[in-house]
């Protein structure tokens, strides 16, 4: 992924195997997978963590390498269908958590100019991402403020 606020290049990562069918060794019923996804969401896990848990722990001891191949739906789609989706998309929520931590740090270390810049960049990303999600995934009236983000994180 290309870095947004630097001149450096992004780092390449590995790709998922190019396949359009679930492997034979992972023959878990789609309904079992969906119920496990909802169960993990109710325990407070984010969609990305749910995918990792299904890959590592599996359902009834059988690993699920790719939820979308096994069920035909993404983890977030399953959560939406079962009214278990989080209030904010995961990427936006994580950026807000990062901004709250950075602002806390800046309160204690006012002379840290590098992190002051990091906070500006993070809040800029939040505003851009909020524009992308506004009206669809989040409320039309949503405006990012540090106070709102801090309050949101305190609630959870």
From TrEMBL:
<dbReference type="InterPro" id="IPR009068">
    <property type="entry name" value="uS15_NS1_RNA-bd_sf"/>
</dbReference>
<feature type="domain" description="Small ribosomal subunit protein uS15 N-terminal">
    <location>
        <begin position="1"/>
        <end position="59"/>
    </location>
</feature>
<dbReference type="GO" id="GO:0006412">
    <property type="term" value="P:translation"/>
</dbReference>
<comment type="similarity">
    <text>Belongs to the universal ribosomal protein uS15 family.</text>
</comment>
<dbReference type="Pfam" id="PF08069">
    <property type="entry name" value="Ribosomal_S13_N"/>
</dbReference>
<feature type="region of interest" description="Disordered">
    <location>
        <begin position="1"/>
        <end position="33"/>
    </location>
</feature>
<dbReference type="InterPro" id="IPR000589">
    <property type="entry name" value="Ribosomal_uS15"/>
</dbReference>
<dbReference type="GO" id="GO:0070181">
    <property type="term" value="F:small ribosomal subunit rRNA binding"/>
</dbReference>
<dbReference type="GO" id="GO:0022627">
    <property type="term" value="C:cytosolic small ribosomal subunit"/>
</dbReference>
<dbReference type="GO" id="GO:0003735">
    <property type="term" value="F:structural constituent of ribosome"/>
</dbReference>
<comment type="subunit">
    <text>Part of the 30S ribosomal subunit.</text>
</comment>
<keyword id="KW-0689">Ribosomal protein</keyword>
<protein>
    <recommendedName>
        <fullName>Small ribosomal subunit protein uS15</fullName>
    </recommendedName>
</protein>
<feature type="compositionally biased region" description="Acidic residues">
    <location>
        <begin position="21"/>
        <end position="32"/>
    </location>
</feature>
<dbReference type="InterPro" id="IPR012606">
    <property type="entry name" value="Ribosomal_uS15_N"/>
</dbReference>
<dbReference type="InterPro" id="IPR023029">
    <property type="entry name" value="Ribosomal_uS15_arc_euk"/>
</dbReference>
<feature type="compositionally biased region" description="Basic residues">
    <location>
        <begin position="1"/>
        <end position="10"/>
    </location>
</feature>
<dbReference type="Pfam" id="PF00312">
    <property type="entry name" value="Ribosomal_S15"/>
</dbReference>
<keyword id="KW-0687">Ribonucleoprotein</keyword>
